[in-house]
Automatic annotation (TrEMBL):
Organism the protein comes from: Rhizobium paknamense
One function term, GO molecular function aspect: transferase activity
Residue intervals of the PLD phosphodiesterase domain: 220-247, 395-422
Protein name, UniProt field: Cardiolipin synthase
PANTHER family cross-referenced by the UniProt entry: CARDIOLIPIN SYNTHASE (PTHR21248), PHOSPHOLIPASE D (PTHR21248:SF22)
Source organism phylogeny: Bacteria, Pseudomonadati, Pseudomonadota, Alphaproteobacteria, Hyphomicrobiales
Amino acid sequence: MFDLLQTYWPHILAVLSTLLGTVAAVHVAMTKRDVRSAIAWVGVIILSPIIGALIYGIVGINRVRRANFVARRNMRRSRLGEVLAHYAIDPGGVETAFGERLESLRRLGDTVCGRVLTSGNRLTPLESGDAAYEAMGQAIDQAEHSILMETYIFDRDRIGRWLADKLIAARKRGVTVRVLVDAVGARYSVPSILSYLEEGDVTVAAFNGQVITGLRLPYANMRTHRKIMVVDGAVAFMGGMNVRDAFCGPDAAHDTHFKVTGPVVADLFAVAADDWHFETGEVLKGEPWRIRLSAGEAGTAPFMRAVASGPDANLEANHRMLMGAFSVAEKSIRIQSPYFLPDNIFLSALVTAARRGVQVEIVVPSKNNLAIVSRAMNAQFEPILRDGCRIYRSAGPFDHSKLLVVDGRWAYIGSSNLDSRSLRLNFEIDLEVYDEDFAGFVERRIAASREGAEEVTLDALRRRPFAVRLLERVLWLGSPYL
């Protein structure tokens, strides 16, 4: 056998390379929606025999199959629909309150999200890590039945251990607790916070892999970037904030998180419960997990809907909702994002809005925790500035907030960054909010970040040395994977 391999190994490698390359290339052609992505992957497969196909198998497959629990999920949603029917916004309800254009956006959300738009919700902004963690800690201390938490990063630092101790204390007094942390995000701390929680008898899991032994193939590139905590089925926390000490203190990084009550909490719980079921096989049912609505009067604003997106049945839901919002904008689109690297379809929608007279403003941080991303963003700025959009680099500490508002009436908040990873690869959770008061808060929050900011201009971009501009374009080529 060894002599045979020694004699014919070039032929065996050639056959193996052809077989793997053909299978991988066929998969690319049949599954990729973007022609540029497909061509790039075929190039990698051809130019790197065997290795290219293996790389594609690990990071190129962008669709997680979760069919094993789709039927159960649909059954849970049907029961959930019965509970929330009293708060559902009927067709025409948005048009009466906010006009015909936003009514068309509601119809888009009905088809894209598969969840109803509900009334009777309440939304409390938490504008710093100190405020967010304090509110979360109080909710954990008051928990009587259950706590379900899902997050990307849960550091084992001062604030992480403080919150973990509260979860452990809740478990000791009889509260049912489940904590799901992304397998990549859990590696941000060594040792992981998961072992600390396990020692305190908290049931934990790592999403899509194991912290020590590795990631689950072939879906290693698919991460949960969601940040959800639901307490007693009555109050939820969501937004862009991970659990880490970097967001606490006077000189800390900025972020914006939210406390939520009302019918939309049931949808946030359902999203996190589905992820827990996918990872562990456990269905969260029974008395501890019963939804206990704390809702306002039916028919009252803010109207809200959970937008779950990810590389499964919810592929590009966030992208589609934002495209719809840009298309109905009449006066203004204001965006704040730490990582602004969307695809050309997204940029074209913004530019089209600007060309028809919509005021488009984008705020990104001047100090970024990912220097490569900051450089790559510069490569996209020139064409959108040329067509009438305005871009600002905010002063002060790094701001991780993800905020968007259209016409001062519709807001979009949550975990999604405006890059290819969040808009296609990651599992994300956002809220669309129809409410002038809340939209006004988002506009003021973005305006505050714009104070003292440096406006990015075409002249300044063009004056930079050629070597710098070339470097940024090279980094931009890798933007789908940053």
